[in-house]
Predict the structure of UDP-glycosyltransferase 87A2.
Amino acid sequence: MDPAKNDSSTVCHVVAMPFPGRGHINPMMNLCKLLASRRPAHILVSFVITEEWLSFIGSDPKPDNIRFVTVPNVIPSEIGRGKDFPGFIEAVYTKMKAPFEDLLDRLEPPVTAIATDTYLVWAVGVGNRRNIPVVSLWPMSATVFSVFHHFELLERNGHFPAEASERGDELVDYIPGVSPIRFSDLSTIVNGDGRRTLHQALEAVSLASNAQYLLFTSVHELEARVIDNLKAKFPFPVYAVGPTIPYFELQNNASVGHKEVNYLQWLDYQPTSVVPLSIGGFWTHCGWNSTLEAVFAGVPMLTFPIFWDQVPNSKQIVEDWKAGWRVKKDLVAENLVTRGEISELLKRFMDQKCKEGNEVRQAVKELQETCQIAIAKGGSSERNLDALIRGISEHTPR
């Protein structure tokens, strides 16, 4: 049944507005598919993308109760945007709001809720002015969100501004809910190219407090302390609904993590920056989507972070979860890793008799089981999704 054809008073119409980038669009679409599958006759999702992005993903499979709607190409092309990433972000911040509001005026049935990427700082204000509940989806780890949320503690403790070359080994052990982390593991966020977009991340996290819901793409049990701490701080629901990867379309592969799984087919469906190492693990840059995919698949990781949140993600994988090894040891010096070093590391990593390797494989297998429990009937992610649907469905559109 097409919910758009139902009586508008019975339809929960969610307008989803992702940040226009693959690493943001994917988790938002996966969230929408989860919502749509829970109540297919009740929920309608209008998924907002630029006309250019429609040409990229318009033919991708999706449920009938998710429809693409577009805004004009008012931002630089996705192709080559990396040449001026701060300029791209500035265009998203300043040029997308007006066409989005114009689209809201034209959409039918009336909008029940707006699900937006936290980085779209103007979307919360749009929803609040129109009395439409806003669901803010944070596309990185809850740990990184908490670092930004408590950023004044870095300033108070002299870790901002600061240079990793001088203070990299110092522990940042004062952020509530976050396990102690070396300052060097935060260096790509607060220094270098990361410094150029830091103010925008801080603004996004700050304005998330004006939303009516905050969602994490994580699994609660993976980051329980930090998520529980944030839940206690905010006056509105905070839900972990992950992993927001297409597991609902992968579960037909009953042997996730088994040697017969076709990882290349999986990666073709959900593009990431991970490289499958036969059946032994992933070489990954530690993007959060890639991290969640590897954990869900029960595959250990060789971490090679490059930028922004990837470095603290690597720390979380290796030190907190014990689910991988670092490829590059010295993150401050940014030294290259030689062919010989990579070869020796891979031999040890793939050696089924290696004690350290087997410990990693056991740890990631336990994480995989945690994810499976979270998405199963009565699991934390399933309960949180249902609670979110109940909450937004109670709102009466104007």
Observations:
- The CA atoms of residues 104 and 301 lie 42 Å apart.
- Residues 253-261, 266-276 have pLDDT under 50 and may be disordered.
- The chain is about 45% helix and 15% strand.
